[in-house]
Write a structure and sequence with these properties.
By secondary structure, this protein is mainly beta. The chain has two domains: 126 residues, Jelly Rolls (Sandwich), CATH 2.60.120.380; 105 residues, Nuclear Transport Factor 2, Chain: A. Helix content is 12%, strand content 36%. The protein has four helices and 16 strands. The radius of gyration is 22 Å and the shape is elongated.
Length: 285
């Protein structure tokens, strides 16, 4: 069991389809069919549901062999597993300070989310950069659960790189995602085999010059890659229309061979139609 001073618990009674539990900073909501809804402020005793009670903090220890590493982006991913009471399961993921964690489930489970310094968070805002741990338990018996998880990326103001002697730097009022965060999330999505999502991050020019066979060739190539190791992602330049990012990437193929992507320089263009960055060109530095 991971020692902590602050606690955050999510409960859901099976059978209430369509009800979703989200990380909430202040109040824990419980919905039960045939029962009136209840609420509880954090720090009070845990809510009791028919046939289920979640403690203020995990009772059982979390074995490292039962912790699965996942990569989260703004595109939700689904995790499913079968869990027995007394045998907790965990997920670990990397996050940046300022991002927000969304968890959705319709199942009767208890969830705690630990920060990199081993504190249980009391909201969906992630205030530290590093590795987080999600610990899951079931109140009793054997149960199968489904989770949907996603990260909302923080937004940063965009500064114009046009020279000026009489004005302050031009700051865009729209919330535009930083290009380096966009690139990192793109390759995380590919690692999670979210090809239909990542393919939409490519400009028509990039597709015409690099993927003449279109989506089928794109999927075939990435299916031959077992894993992408993502190194330093560095923002070199960004304004309201264009950005340049340098990305250190290594590909481990299905045959076991590993090589570094020599075309680490990535040129991106802003698309008003899709309201996001698009890969426009890759080249050697």
């Amino acid at each position: 069991m991971i020692t902590t001073q602050r606690n955050f618990i999510f409960n859901k009674k099976r059978g209430n389809s369509g009800k979703i539990i989200l990380l909430s900073a202040i109040v824990l909501l419980l919905f039960n069919s045939g029962c009136k809804s209840q609420s509880q402020t954090l720090g009070q005793a845990p809510l009791n549901t028919p046939g289920a009670t979640c403690p203020d903090k995990p009772v059982d220890s979390l074995d490292t062999k039962n912790v699965k590493q996942i990569q989260l982006t703004s595109q939700p991913i689904k995790e499913s597993s079968q869990l027995r009471a007394g045998k907790d399961l965990g997920y670990t993921f990397e996050a940046q300070s300022g991002q927000r964690l969304n968890i959705q489930t319709n199942d009767e489970i208890c969830i705690w989310v630990y920060t990199p310094d081993n504190q249980i968070i009391t909201g969906k805002d992630l205030t530290q950069t590093g590795k987080y741990i999600i610990q899951i338990s079931v109140p009793k018996g054997l149960s199968t659960f489904d989770l949907q998880l996603a990260l909302e990326s923080s937004s940063k103001p965009i500064y114009s790189n046009q020279p000026t002697t009489t004005q302050e730097p031009n700051i865009s009022t729209s919330e535009v995602q930083s290009a380096d965060t966009f690139v990192r999330n793109h390759y995380i999505a590919i690692n999670n085999r979210q090809y239909s999502f990542s393919y939409k991050n490519l400009s028509p020019r990039f597709i015409n010059e690099n993927i003449p066979g279109g989506y089928s060739d794109y999927q075939r190539w990435w299916d031959s890659v077992k894993e992408i190791k993502i190194g330093e992602i560095k923002l070199l330049k960004q304004n309201n229309n264009q950005a340049i990012v340098n990305a250190e990437l290594w590909y481990t193929m299905n045959d076991g061979k590993t090589f570094q992507d020599s075309k680490s320089r990535i040129d991106l263009v802003w698309s008003n139609d899709s309201n996001k960055w698009l890969f426009d060109m890759k080249s050697e530095p």
